[in-house]
Amino acid sequence: MATRRGDTLIFSDPPVIASHATVGGKKEGEGPLAAGFDELRADNSFGRSGWEAAEAELQLRAARLCLKKAQIPEKEVSLVLAGDLQAQCTASNYAMRALGIPYAGLFGACSTMAEALGLGAALCSAGMADGLLAMSSSHFCAAERQFRTPLSYGAVRTPTAQWTATAAGACLLRPAGPGVGIRAVTFGRVQDYQIKDINNMGAAMAPAAAATLLHYLRDTHSEPQDFDAIYTGDLGHVGSQLFRELLAAEGLLLKNHVDCGCILYDAEAQTVKSGGSGAGCCAAVLCAHILPRLERGTQKRLLFLATGALMSQTTFLQKESIPAIAHLVELWAPKKEGTA
C-alpha cells in the first residue's frame, strides 16, 4: 500500500514497470533516439486511410509489442489506462476496441503518460490490478488538424512552436517482481499563468512543472541533486528555460534537468523549432531512452515529470487562457539479485 504525504503517494513496496515498448513515425526515426524504438515506420499513415485511424493503429502496435516482450497474452491484463490528444480520446478508444481489455480512458494532454503510470501504480499497490497497461500516444497530422490548421494550409510555424510527436509508448505494470520500480507519485494541481498563445505550449506548462516538482521535494524532503536526472515532458527549449528560471527564483538551481521534447529530435537539423511535444513524446522518450538507462544501471534514481496543456479547440477559439498540469513519477533502477 501507499502512504500519503501532501500531494505525494509513497510506495513502501514499489510496483514495477515489467515491460515497455514504443512505436514511432518517420521523423522519430530520423531523430537521435531512433535506436531505442521497438518499431519505426516511414509511412505515418500506418496502413490506414486517415490520420486519426493511424494513431489508433500506432497505439495498438505499442500495446501488443509491450505484451509480446513480457510474454503474456492480452487476457492476462487486468486494465488499460490510456489517453491521447484527439477529441474524447478517440485514438485510445478505437485501439482498445481492437484490444478487448478492460479500459479506462485518461486525458492529461501531454502529461497523460505520467498520469497513467501514477494511477496504475496506485491500483497495483492496492492489489486491485496485476498486469496493467499504462500508455499514451499522439500523431502530428491528427493534432495539427484538430488544434491548428490542416497541413495543406502551409501555416508558418513560430520559433516557440513545438512538433507533435507521431509516437506511442506502453508500459506493463505489476505489483512486484523484476523491473523498474515506481517509488513515488505526485499528482499535480492546475496552474494558469494566463498564456493564450497556442504556439507557445512551453510557456503555458512551465509553471505547472515547477509547482509539482516543488510539492514533491517538500513532501519527500528531497533535493534535486538526489537524482541522476529530472526529466520534464515536452516543455521544449523555450519552456525548459522558463522552468529553470522559475525554480531559480525559489532558490533551486537545476544542473540535472533534461526535457523529453528537447532530446526526441535534433531541433536544428529537423526544423522542429522549440522541440517535440504531444502525449506520445514523453511516452516515447520514457520507453525508448529513460527506462533502458535504468535497466542498464546507467542511472539509478530519477524523476519523470510530464506536463500537459489543458486547452480545447473550443476554449482556444474563445480566446481563453491555457491551464496546465504536471504529474511526477519517481523511478528506481531494478534491484540486482541478492540485494535487499
UniProtKB/TrEMBL annotation:
One of its GO terms (molecular function) is acyltransferase activity. It comes from the Bacteria. Signal peptide: none annotated. Pfam families: SpoVAD. InterPro entries: SpoVAD, SpoVAD_sf, Thiolase-like. This is Stage V sporulation protein AD.
